Automatic annotation (TrEMBL):
Family, as annotated: Belongs to the ABC transporter superfamily.
Origin: domain of life: Bacteria
Protein name: ABC-2 type transport system ATP-binding protein
Cited Pfam families: ABC_tran
C-alpha cells in the first residue's frame, strides 16, 4: 500500500532521514515512535508530498508521490504537525474549501463536510471562526480536514499534542473508529500513546528505523534477554559453579561490587521463572543470597535502549546547524512553505 524505499533527507549536511525502508499494509494503525528530532515529521512530510526527498522514493498504491502526485495524494489525508488552517474562515467555510481542494465533486461536498463534522464532533462550533477556537477544537478541525472524503490512508503527525486528557481520549477513540475502514499512520514521542493505540510500532531514532513490530512482539523480542539479578558473598567462580546445573540458564555475567559482594546477571531461556531454583541452588551450598530479582523488559526499556543518546545528538547537531546557517537549509524551508500553500 505504501512503500518507502531508501529515503534520505538532508538539511545542509545534517541528515534528518537516514535511508529509511518500510512498507505499510492495509487496515492497521501504525505508530512512528521516536524522540523529538528523530525525523518523524520530515518522513511524513515526504510521504505526503509536502517535501522532496534528497534520495529514495515513496510509492502510494504504486504511484510515486513526486512523479505522480495527483494520483498518490488522492489516497492520503494528512494532518501535519501544524495544521494549515485559515483562521479567518468559519469551520464550515474552511472544510468546504478543503473539500474543493481535494476535488470532491460540488454536489457531494456538503454531505462529505457534514460527515466529518459529525465524526470530529464539530457540530457546535461549525459556524465559528477558526481563530476563536481552542487548541483542541482546532486540532479536530485539522483532523476533520485530513479525513475529508475518507481517503484510504490517513496520516496524522502528533495528533494529540497540546490537548487535554479528555480531548486526547476523544481523539484516540476517533482514530480507532477510523481504523476500522482505513489505514492510519500516526506519530508520537509518547510511548504509552503508541502502545495503546497502534497495532504496529516503528521506532525511529536519528532518522533511522531501529525497530518495527507489534508492541507485544517488540517486548518479547527483547524478552529473549529476560534476566535475573543476584547479589551474594560467594566468589565469582562459586557463583558460576552453583548456577551451572540450574535449568534454563542461558548466560551468566558476574562482577565484583564495591562492597566486595559478587553481582551476577543471569540471562534466562524459554521465559522460565528460575528464581526458586536459583534460591535453592545457593541455599544448598550455604551461600546466602543478598538480592534476587527478575528484571523483565518492557517496551519502555526497548524504546530507551534503541533511542539512547538521541537527545544529546540532537542538541549537538542543532548547535552545528545554527553555527553554520547553511543556505541550503534556508532554501529548503522556503521550498517547504511554498509547497505547503498548495497542498491540503
Ligand atoms: P520529529 O518530527 O521526529 O521531531 P523532525 O522530522 O521535525 O523530527 O526533524 C528531524 C531533524 O531534522 C531534526 O534534527 C530537526 O532539527 C531537523 N530539521 C527539521 N526540519 C528542518 C528544516 N526545515 N531545516 C533544518 N533542519 C530541520
Ligand atoms: Mg515532529
Amino acid at each position: 500500500m505504501i512503500e518507502v524505499k531508501n529515503l534520505v533527507k538532508k538539511y545542509g549536511n545534517h541528515i534528518a532521514v537516514d535511508h529509511l525502508n518500510f512498507t505499510i499494509e492495509e487496515g492497521k494503525i501504525y505508530g512512528f515512535l521516536g524522540p523529538n528530532g528523530a525525523g518523524k515529521s520530515t518522513t511524513m512530510n515526504i510521504m505526503t508530498g509536502y517535501l522532496g526527498a534528497t534520495e529514495g522514493e515513496v510509492l502510494i498504491n504504486g504511484h510515486n508521490i513526486l512523479k505522480d502526485p495527483e494520483e498518490a495524494k488522492k489516497c492520503i489525508g494528512y494532518l501535519p504537525e501544524i495544521p494549515p488552517l485559515y483562521t479567518d474562515m468559519t469551520v464550515l467555510e474552511y472544510l468546504d474549501f478543503a473539500a474543493e481542494l481535494k476535488k470532491i465533486k460540488k454536489k457531494e461536498r456538503e454531505e462529505a463536510v457534514e460527515q466529518v463534522v459529525k465524526l470530529a464532533k464539530l457540530y457546535d462550533v461549525q459556524e465559528r471562526l477558526i481563530k476563536n477556537l481552542s487548541k483542541g477544537y482546532r486540532q479536530r478541525v485539522g483532523l476533520a480536514q485530513a479525513i475529508l472524503g475518507f481517503p484510504e490512508i490517513i496520516i496524522l503527525d502528533e495528533p494529540t499534542v497540546g490537548l487535554d486528557p479528555k480531548q486526547i481520549i476523544e481523539i484516540r477513540e476517533l482514530i480507532r473508529t477510523l481504523a476500522k475502514n482505513h489505514t492510519v499512520i500516526l506519530s508520537s514521542h509518547i510511548l504509552a500513546e503508541v502502545q495503546e493505540v497502534c497495532d504496529y510500532v516503528m521506532i525511529i531514532s536519528k532518522g533511522k528505523l531501529v525497530a518495527s513490530d507489534t508492541p507485544v512482539n517488540l517486548e518479547q523480542l527483547m524478552a529473549g534477554s529476560e534476566t535475573v539479578e543476584i547479589t551474594t558473598r560467594a566468589t565469582q567462580t562459586e557463583v558460576r559453579d552453583i548456577l551451572r546445573p540450574v535449568a534454563n540458564v542461558e548466560k551468566i555475567t558476574t562482577q565484583v561490587n564495591k562492597d566486595n559482594t559478587t553481582g551476577a546477571v543471569i540471562e534466562v531461556k524459554n521465559h522460565a521463572d528460575i528464581r526458586e531454583s536459583v534460591f535453592m541452588a545457593f541455599a544448598e551450598k550455604k551461600k546466602p543470597l543478598l538480592l534476587l530479582k527478575n528484571t523483565k523488559v518492557s517496551l519502555e526499556d526497548v524504546f530507551l535502549e534503541l533511542t539512547q543518546n538521541d537527545a544529546e545528538a540532537e542538541k549537538l547537531e542543532t548547535d552545528e546547524l545554527e553555527a553554520e546557517e547553511s543556505d541550503a537549509v534556508k532554501q529548503e524551508m522556503e521550498e517547504g512553505e511554498n509547497e505547503d500553500a498548495g497542498n491540503l
